[in-house]
Design goal:
This protein is mostly helical. The chain has helices spanning 5-14, 20-49, 52-78, 93-121, 129-157, 160-185, 192-219, 226-237, 271-286; strands spanning 242-253, 256-265, 292-299. Helix 9 (271-286) links the parallel strand 2 and strand 3 (292-299).
Length: 300
């Protein structure tokens, strides 16, 4: 549903000369614009219908816009080169902002559950359901195009912020579907609005947990996934002269990958020859990602 090859090829061709950082920024900018549009139309629909599910969805879209605003500025800051105060760059800001992003999402989920609880004792009589349904169909289509693009960008850049933003909007997508179902079924079951509000609230809290986990993985310098480490080893061993990988350490900071390796080479090699092997490895590994820091050392 969010991975159509022909569309991906069109996007690849259109953004072939765009850096990963700029691509991530475009994704977040689209998120801000989409969220503002959704807040406006959902407010009109909520004011017209009085639906608790619509109110929850509008609140979530408002937090989406705020979160995307902070994410955009975090991406700009993370792209600043290293300086005297930050010798390894500023990429870690992505993990820090992802934590803040998680807290906003958690608050959104808690507010939805609280509003559903408050409404349980006095269920709202939903009015003008047709208007609400039309607005939510428009919202669902708008969110779909955003999520598709964000998933595409997240796959290309591996940005923790874009991934978090995409997860947040994914909850908005399913929330919209739940609201549509709530509006349709409210005529037959008065508590359906509250039930869907609880379901969506729990889903939002689950997404907050996922974003928090990904942010902590980044901030705690957890090793790259085994599949990526295996690929790195394959590249290293593909260079002539490498006898053994004595040490391999990996981590990520935002979109940037860090690789440090110590290899064993033949003791008969000169310093110049050993240096050529390490340079060849670094060149090959540097092609794996747009933002990467590679350090290879050789020993006999």
């Amino acid at each position: 549903m969010f991975n159509i090859q022909i569309i991906n090829k069109i996007l690849d061709n259109y953004f072939k000369n765009v850096t990963h950082v700029e691509l991530a920024k475009k994704s977040v900018q689209l998120g801000v614009i989409t969220s503002i549009f959704l807040v406006v139309i959902k407010f009109v629909a909520w004011f017209t219908t009085g639906s608790i599910s619509l109110q929850a969805s509008m609140t979530d879209s408002l937090l989406d816009a705020l979160t995307s605003f902070f994410v955009f500025h975090a991406l700009k800051y993370s792209d600043i080169k290293f300086d005297e105060g930050h010798n390894f760059g500023h990429e870690k800001v992505e993990g820090v902002v992802a934590i803040f992003q998680c807290l906003l999402i958690f608050y959104s989920g808690w507010m939805i559950l609280h509003e559903a609880y408050e409404t349980l004792s006095e269920p709202n009589q939903i009015q003008n359901t047709a208007i609400g349904i039309i607005v939510m169909i428009i919202s669902t289509l708008a969110v779909y195009q955003l999520i598709y693009f964000q998933n595409y960008v997240a796959y290309k850049t591996e940005s923790i912020l874009v991934k978090g933003d995409s997860l947040h909007y994914m909850s908005d997508f399913f929330m919209n579907i739940a609201v549509i179902a709530s509006l349709i079924l409210s005529k037959f079951f008065s508590l359906i609005d509250v039930i869907f509000g609880v379901i969506v609230g729990c889903y939002v809290l689950y997404n907050a947990f996922i974003i928090m986990r990904n942010a902590l993985i980044d901030l705690m310098d957890e090793s790259l996934p085994k599949a990526i480490q295996d690929k790195i080893k394959e590249v290293i061993y593909s260079v002539d002269g490498v006898l053994e990988i004595k040490l391999l350490r990996t981590r990520s900071a935002g979109m940037k990958k860090y690789i440090e390796a110590r290899i064993k080479v033949n003791s008969d090699l000169s310093l110049l020859e050993a240096n050529k092997i390490t340079n060849d490895i670094e060149k090959k590994l540097s092609k794996l990602y747009e933002k990467i820091d590679v350090t290879i050392k050789a020993e006999i």
